[in-house]
Amino acid sequence: MRDAIVLFVNGVRREVRGDAAFLTVTDWLRYEERLTGTKVVCAEGDCGACTVLVGRPGGDRPWRFDPVNACILTMAQLDGAHVLTIESVARDGALHEVQRAMCDKHGSQCGFCTPGFVMAMLGHFEHHPDEKASPKAVANHLTGNLCRCTGYLPILEAAADVRPEKYESVVARHHSADIASSLGAATKDSLRIEDSARGTIDAPATLDELFALRAAHPDARIIAGNTDLGVLVNKQKLWPAGTSRRAISLHLLHELDGATLEDGVLTIGARATLGEVERAAATAAPDFSRLLRVFASPQIKNIGTLAGNVATGSPIGDTIPALFALGAEVELSSARGVRRVPIDEFYRGYRETVMAPDELVTRVRFAALGDGATFRVYKVCQRRDLDISFVGAAFFLAHDGATIREARVAYGGVGPTVLRLREVEALLVGCPLRDEAAWERVAAAVEAAISPRSDLRGSEQGRRVLAGNLARKFGHELRGEVFA
Amino acid sequence: MIKIIDPVADPSHDSARGHVRGASEFIDDRPAVAGELHVGVVFSTEPHARIVAIHSAEALAVAGVVGVYTAKDVHHNLWGTIIQDQPLIADDVVRFVGEPVAIVAGETREAMEQGRRLVRVDYEPLEAILSVRAAIAAKSFIGSERYIVRGDVDAALARAPHRASGTVKIQGQDHFYLESQCSIAYPREDGQVEIHSSSQHPTEVQHVVAHGMGLPAHAVVCVVKRMGGGFGGKESQGAPFAFFAALVAARTGRAARCVITKDDDMVMTGKRNPFEIDYTVGYEDDGTIVGLDVRLYSDGGAYADLSTSIMERAMLHSDNAYFLANAKVTGQVCRTHVHPHTAFRGFGGPKGVAMIENVLEDIAHRLGIDPLDVRKRNVYRGPDRDVTHYGQKLANNLLPELFDAIESRCDYRARREELRAFNARSKTQIKGLSITAVKFGISFTTRFLNQGNALVNVHQDGTIQLSTGATEMGQGVNTRIAMVVAEAFGVALSSVRVMPTSTEKNHNTSPTAASAGTDLNASAALVAAERIRGRLAKVAAQLFELPEDRWPSRTAGLGTMPEIELERATDDIVFADGFVARRANPDQRIAFAKVCREAYLSRVQLGDYGYFKTPGIYFDKLSGQGDPFFYFTQGVACSEVLIDRLTGELEVRRVELLMDLGRPINASLDIGQITGAFVQGMGWCTTENLVYDPKGLLLSHSPSTYKIPSIQDTPRVFDVKLVENLGNSKNVRSTKAVGEPPLLLAISVWTAIKDALHSLAPRDRTLALSLPMTHERILLAAEQLRASRA
């Protein structure tokens, strides 16, 4: 059992234990390490000012560095990782190519978002050196970074001016086999960080240990990506200042890594990030993959997990209507064994699930779409990208090209949980696929079946109109009536 | 004919290299000094209530909590930029959710936060006014009603062949500067305090701190190195946070850091004022406005702040680019129980402009005339239609040409036809297209603010440090001022460094606001630079006459030569490329640094202090008449939007924009201001939705719920061009201010949404759009039209 987190920061080894091990990564960087280039604005992973690159091995994957939001990471998550901050980017007084472009193209005004943009851009070019010419690709990778000064045009121009061939990759420049083996050797054993005031965070190295800890501490919160917990903690809604916490981190459990497609089934481990799922689902369920593209920023997708999204059980939970329509099942594990629950039986009420106190979500599975299946997801929000849905909807239709044989329809944001609309499904079965009148009836049935409420994201009336319209829109799309 | 300025490679922002390396120092990046304390604010959870008791014992019992301070600890509690009506810390009554009630100081942030949570306040609720209409009904106002009147509007309306009335409801906007409010106070000897603040107005910080603490002004220094964005939100509202830090520093004798979280900042600080505008317009068959009677109400929030001045600018911009033969503009600020609203880029301007552009859009729809033609019919045009409703004649008016130029550049007529066909064809989408203009008056409408001072120090190696009252918030004011001074001395920009703004170097400064930061401060710096240059020219003229071995650098040590006297003709001395030369004989030249060294050794003053006040401006606030503006910045924009009728989702597809910025100092920085302001304005018009609970607590207080535009929202076609105009010779370097005006061009996105929705509406039906038009409002408007046609 270890009592210290081991990590590298900008090429330098650090051990962190006790009080400091409970800090957010930004607080540790800024106030303990005096690396103040990493900024905090929102403390909820929505603005990207805190973007750093985190390098880690992913099971059998090679080391890769990905941009993440340091403000909602807790230090335990960096155990075994190599974190690179903005301070590492320029070398010997010479600007990096990305920095040069940001200067030359006036991509920085007040400067507060700039380090985050540089890190996000660096992360983008690390994996997509060929995509610099496409403003759309660049924009997709910078959705997680807000700038209030430039209107973004100069930043897009800077990205277009970067010549990735002019510099070596981050992994080549900053990483080494020595660092990898040093971290590997140091982080084999399970970890327990403890502080009399702050509490305990456990990181088991085996599933057996995990299940034992879970059973012993049913009140402990599970840390996978921490993208939800981190926000609650920062906003003093969970473990506020002066209280003690209990958490279990999954970061050493590589059995739960990855998303793999085998025999027509996509199996998604509890540690598989949303980004990994997006890539893995590209062929299995392309529209699910497309949803994940706008669902969250790269920084969130590089750390947040699908299992976390499922377990959190938000009634909007953007991925959940899609998983309902895909007929996904949730694997729940404990020392007692493993069981699989269809996702539409997983939720009991507002943020309530059928999970027993000693259980955890270990995997999510769904079958890849076959021929004769049409699957479509909609997510409508105030801002198209990186926003929580006003209403979300997902449709799965099995058909022969003319008549619908089977249907699954689920809506989010229109009730206390995600709703599967069985009466609407019944209406669809046997209907002609492209009949306008049929879809008009479906839309009316959707409006009747839901129970939306007004909140700060919109009104009850708006949600009802939109929910019906999404069915109409799907009908228009099936008839090929959407263009431009 | 309009000529487009060709782009050149302009110098980057003077902090760009620091910014991209994360090396630029912001307030919270300053290392903690020994014993430094963390300062937090306990704020009101009630919109209007009597404070019965404040219980701080539990908080004080927390290990590490050093003190809890309340109104009793403030020497003089009332402050306010225009009207001193706001307590720094609420005394017996709270007047908005978010109002400071107590200040907590802790050894660590953790202790401070814990203490903050444990301070309990007992309230006795009082009746709260939470809307403009409720305030009007209760006659709850700030300041008196104001008027600008021209002609006889009642008679004009009675005569007009067409009349229409309506209301425009405009919401507020959060500044969402990335760096939230923050200050650090350092106690200095003999009772002094030094404040480092993220503030657009260091002089006001100095004054508010001095006043609140009972100190003379000379005991307080405020330093501003830079801000992580301001946009008006740190013009007045940075001061209380500086005061809280100063209060703790004074009470404890320890440095004190007050850094507010984004959530708390958004709840506590005021926004762009919401407006409700009622209007009646009369117009001819061809769309010419003959009379406009408009009554503007704004929500000032709980305290006056800058709201009366903001209302004044809204009234002065209710014409925008259009001649109003008969007009009556009435303005009244309402007092409600929400956070005191404040300056935001454009000040009142965007509200007046949104109103008139909306009116023009409706006139066009009702008459079945293209909205562009209605605008061109009404645009200010000499000789008879070029005097504003407040009596200022438009000099150097490019507006008619700008309309013509944008029309042809964006291929308006052909696209209008395409769009009509698209809207007829599509079952799920509609497109809208709109051109709007801006004519933004430059100068503070409060005359005494139009002054600036600057200190220029030339060192013996020829490098220059300069200091002004301008504050750098990303807009590049320091870079522009440095460029003006470098040009004056003919030296490289790298030889000039703009130093942190500090009230001990520059006194009685105006806020960096009203887009006038460069105008005022570069003008003052140029006054100082030109004086120094005049003396250096005389030195150089004499050096040219002397053999080098008789120059002061060879002789001053031993004192073998008389000092250089300063009476030489300098007409043919030029400063260029780092040298001082004779125009007649450019080969005869001396390095600038060398001249500086020789000047010093001859006891010639190498530093100077410049002062500037804007000439020829006046505005009588009571009569509503005058020449309040030094000049106008003008521009036009064309926006095209695509709307999904079934979801209300909006895409701004294409934007073309032309601005007249006179002779730009740094066109690249100016274009960055334009793209930034436009997208910020677009956010105000579309996605930025402030949602309050029934008590006036802001619910959308972080980026997860308050949506500023993201990189995906930037129009994919976004063409920004500057037009040549060398005619603004009265301003420094013939340039024009840029900070605010382009924000108002984003109103073209809003009117394009209206244009799109009007395609679904019969001619006799115009849509009352609110601002912002969120996707939900678009959805419901489209749905209503669909239902009414079905």
What do these coordinates show?
Chain A folds into 3 domains: 4-87 and 175-249, Ubiquitin-like (UB roll), CATH 3.10.20.30; 97-166, DNA polymerase, domain 1, CATH 1.10.150.120; 258-484, Uridine Diphospho-n-acetylenolpyruvylglucosamine Reductase, domain 3, CATH 3.30.465. Chain A is globular. A 5-stranded mixed β-sheet of chain A has the order 2-1-5-3-4. Chain A has a 5-stranded antiparallel β-sheet with strand order 10-11-16-12-13. In chain A, strands 6-7-9-8 form a 4-stranded mixed β-sheet, covered by helices on one side. The N and C termini of chain A lie far apart (60 Å). By secondary structure, chain A is an alpha+beta fold. Chain A is built from 17 helices and 20 strands. Helices cover 32% and strands 22% of the residues of chain A. In chain A, a hairpin with a 7-residue loop joins strand 3 and strand 4. The two termini of chain B are 49 Å apart. By secondary structure, chain B is an alpha+beta fold. In chain B, the strands form 8 sheets. In chain B, strands 3-7-1-14-11-12-13-22 form an 8-stranded mixed β-sheet, sandwiched between helices. Chain B has a 6-stranded mixed β-sheet with strand order 9-17-16-15-10-32, sandwiched between helices. Chain B has 3 domains: 31-128 and 181-259, Aldehyde Oxidoreductase, domain 3; 275-445 and 620-789, Aldehyde oxidase/xanthine dehydrogenase, molybdopterin binding domain (Aldehyde Oxidoreductase, domain 4, 2-Layer Sandwich), CATH 3.30.365; 451-613, Aldehyde oxidase/xanthine dehydrogenase, molybdopterin binding domain (Aldehyde Oxidoreductase, domain 4, 2-Layer Sandwich). The mean pLDDT of chain B is 97. Chain B is globular and about 100 Å long. In chain B, helix 15 packs across helix 17 (592-601). At the A-B interface, helix 2, helix 3, helix 4, helix 5 and helix 17 of A face helix 1, helix 3, helix 18 and helix 21 of B.
